[in-house]
Fold these 3 entries.
Entry 1:
Amino acid sequence: MPRFFRLLLFCGLLLTLGLPATVRAQQKTTLPNSQRKLSAKVIRQMRTRLDATPLFPNVNRVAYFRDKKALRAIQKAEKRKNWPAARNLLELYVGQFGIENFYRDTPMLWHLGQLWDKTGNPERAKAYYRLALKHRRQGLSKVQQYYDSLEHRDTVLYVPLKTYYDLVEYRKNIATFRPPKGVYTSMGDAINSKREDYGPTLNADADLLIFSSKRKTRGLNNVTDEDLYQSRRENGLWTEAEPLPKPINSPYNEGSACISKDGTTLYFTRCECPTCHGNCDLYVSNFKDGKWTMPKTLGPNVNSGAWDSQPTLSPGEDTLYFASDRLGGFGLSDIWFTVKQKNGEWSRAQNMGPVVNTRESEVSPFYHPLYHVLYFSSRGQLLNFGDFDIYKTYRVRGRWQEPINIGPLVNGKGSEYYFTIDADSKNLYYARSEQKDLKNLDLYSFPLPMEAQPTATTHVEGSLIDSVSRRPLNGIVSIIDTDNGIEVASKYLRDDGSFDFDLMEGSHYVMLIQSPDFFSVEKSFALQGDTVLKLMTNAIDYKLPLVFKNIEFDQDKATIRASMHPILDRIAVFMVDHPTFRLNISGHTDSKGDPDFNLTLSQDRAEAIRRYIEQKGKLPPNRIESMGYGSEKPLREDERTKEDARTNRRVEFRLLKPDGGDNDEPFKADPFPGTKPAAPGKPEPQPTGGDGW
């Protein structure tokens, strides 16, 4: 079986998105909260910044670097406890690492991280800790502790999809902001067959889809024939898929293609052929005079004696990236690249280096057609939701930055790879299987969420604290893109009340923070540059009733006034967000007038508030209790002044947690599995003995 397909078979269910709805593409279905095409203003803006990721210029020059004289100088500086000198010498040494150094000399990476930490640069320290963790061949629990202690402030605490979508569901019937809910869409019967269909790629205009399929067999023994197929989008619908003509498809196996912007050059993989250097090789064909030319191998500079597949072109089409499991890499399979030279030939393939590649497997590179953003799949990066996850990395000033997981809206418990994104960054196209037929891969699209957007690089951070105690609060923070309808994964507030998101500049957003500890916080903002938000709210004390100054009725009336709406609306939204909570409303009057009249008036007022909240939140009638007490329960027994009467004339709200429990677990983040609290004290970096790096 060709190995450009082999990883897919390990997956079963490729994209475990946890989404309940499927829509057939050939049906013109209008989805609520659907993502709209981005404005040109948004598309043009992308803020990129260098992180602390170091450069390793030697990885494609030497296999292993060793300099005994330099090592002795490092040890000498450490024995004198001259930590800045030791750090500088060690960084110079590590900067000359070849590929083998990363698994043979891993302790040097984490030791350098310690030195940077000790001398006051936690960002540089984290960069080297990450490299040590990505390339370790043995357990490094101490490195994990050091890294976790520094990363705690920036930990990403995504809300589980079920909790997130429960919140969306609760709010669907009330007139307030709510997050959109993405729906994966089948590409339809014109493209998908009863056999495996996978490996999509699009042209620049996203109206030509080329993909791999195993729908055909050959020979008397019905051997599966993997070929490339194409379909065109016409009037919003995809045409019936047809195989690419000869000489692209051949008696051998073809798949995993990418096409140039002008549509005249096709790079693809051919496997198990007489001219292949290895199991699978990269080939190129040009479209001339109305037909494709005879494919040519990219030659021994690019192809190896192993598996070479999954090509993708840079926006300038001068660099080709691909996956390979050739010897000499960092892990089981790596991302490699080759550069087109002045004579039109491709240079010797080079490894992308230790930031992108790990000791595990990296596959399915995809270079965005408009931006210097490379997407790829990996099972060796530090934040991982399942098996293979999709990541993105930005190229800033010629340096690839630390990869970013594109989040749980795409990455699930299974594996995600073999995908493409249209130039407008509207949809992700990928292969997945349904539970009823795990072996049959079909092609789907899914609205590209914020975490995967190439221009989501403007940083928004903030914190939420109680306005009285100044203590941080627990809760879930959601961002709603009101301009483009792009879905943003919700996050938990960290233990210190902080949160952060990377969003698209130039758009309008609503921030929604929910918790049983306080009434929901909503804040609208237009994003212009990196933003810091300092938020406060009043925590709810469940031991005391809530009394609001704005809840005042006209004399002897039980009619809800417009001035009451904001407070009552907040209570209604709270009840919607927390469907297991109940509410008790009690009406009270002052002592003036007829006691029986006051009793009836207080009951009518409590009932009026109950009806308003039920109607506003579309709540069932059994969640709210209302009772009038007239003047029977005054707060001030001796009602002598107007202020005393105003104090006694009130409406009390008591929020009741279910079964007397906290019931706030969905609004608190669980620690990541396997993480441990960092040691309270960090020891000084210890010099190594002898020559034992």
Note: Residues 456-537 form a domain with the Immunoglobulin-like fold (CATH 2.60.40.2190).
Entry 2:
Amino acid sequence: MNLLDVSRRQLLYELYESKKMIYRILNLPAEAQSLVSMSISPFLSLLCDGIDNLFSEENSKLSESLGLIDEVSFTKLMSRNRASIKLLTDKKISNAIKIIDKQLLSFNNALTKDYNILQKCYVSIFGQPGLGVYFYKGAAFANTSQLSIYQDMFRKMTNNDITDSRLGPIIRNFSEIQSSYINSFASQIEGNLMPKIESKKCKVNIIDSNFLEKDFIFSNEAKRNVFMSSDDKNSTLYLFNLKCQLSFSLNIIPLIIEKNHALRFRIEMIVYYQSVKTIEFLIKNNKFPLNNTNKEIIDNVLIDFNSIFLNNNLRSNIYHYRFSEDNAQMEMTNDFFISMVEFQTQQNFNDIFNIIENDMEKLIEVLDEITSLI
């Protein structure tokens, strides 16, 4: 079995679906389109990284030919955008929390920078809402802190000034190149191995009224009106970001990606892996508020998690598109991704994925209680 060929075929299959996903997003109402685009961007960068890894020459990456965005290479921005999936969990918890706090303070300062005396007086009395939370059918799936992490690499290009006129064009330019890069490879099988994609038929049953935005005062401690039951608002926001990513994966991803497609499975498994490892790390460092009820739930989730990811290379195979060498021994079915998961875990894929989705729902319930907005 030639693993490089298998890896490339799997990537092209997911690129094809991602092109349909992009059309579905473009056909969303304007407000929903913007929110979903920002949330999915790191996973599109994961696909772009797969192209670089599987189709580049030995000494250079294909994406390096795509040029610069405001003097920074698309390749570098794409790599940083991809890494933002981790929501700062690759950093020390204390450092991650400081970064989140700094981002919100910067956002708050930018909002009030050009206020007149009357507006500043109003803010001093009532406070300035600086944390926006976005809901889909009542479930929080994104917030400005989380989205700020996804876009941190772009803001750094404007010295964290969100009012800088360059920021919008930088993000649009990146998204356009990202989509074009994906399309250039998806087109290799479109109309050939796979049917031609008709953009107008890529519809999603989502309307603007399904979405709701609420703004909260976070930075001003005296006026704060969010996470009121929490002793440590910054740690709570860190967990809230995690919950929003879980909710996006469970509630939005199945709407924009075909339900039984490997791309959906991959994204949900990555979010599950990242969430459980983060919570496990927080518990070990006494940073997670355990009680008798949620301890039992978390303990059971950790048992499930270890039964899926322990003593195999599954983690590497979902985060990267190049199949690990041990997969040369796997028994192939029509779906390479499912074959890989079953080979790595020695378990039935449907059983595994049911466990993962059930555990994600349990984690959201636990985090709902800990990160109550009121």
Note: The longest helix spans residues 30-55.
Entry 3:
Amino acid sequence: MFAIAFLFYALMGALLIAEKTGDISSRYFRALGTILAIRDLSTKLQFSLLDLALEAQQLLPESDTALKTAFRKKVFAIAEAFCTDLGKLTREELQTWQDEYTTSISELDTLAQQGKTSVEQSLTDAITELKTAREQAKQEAAAEEAAKKPALVKVTVKTAFDGEIRVTIENVETAKFSQMSFALNPLPTGATKIEAFAEKDGKSLSYSNWVELKPGIQALDIDLT
């Protein structure tokens, strides 16, 4: 019975070592304390059996049957007491192990929930970043597409002139107009140097300026001086 008790506790110890979520040091000292308690029970049993052995030597073969019966009851009582103490010890240890196991499972569940929450948050953040990047890419694509569109400039000359007005774009003569209002051919967007030359009563008039051309239609007023 003593060997079986040790074997049972060895199995419990193996399970405790395999269960790695708790404190290894506390499990070690608790296991050591239980082994020492079992040893104490064994020592107590051995002394009790030794005492009974000495008492048995005093019984003669022709001793009274009542004495022999009383002696056997003593042996059974000591064995029963040992088994009771050993059972109590193992039950207490089993309950402690179950409590620690339950706590461990609870901690694992908490960690799992935290991990789940973290993963869900990471996925949400990743989806948000993906949506933001997609919207930004769409905006950049739209801006790039818009930038490819030419600038359509509607010119209004505020100063009267004789004959025709010559318009140059980036020092290159583009067109001549006799009207006070006209439209230039589609031009690339960006900063552009626009100049105009005309005459009034034999006097030369001109206009020169850098204009930021944007995609689409825009107005440009020219004052000849």
Note: DSSP finds three helices and seven strands in the chain.
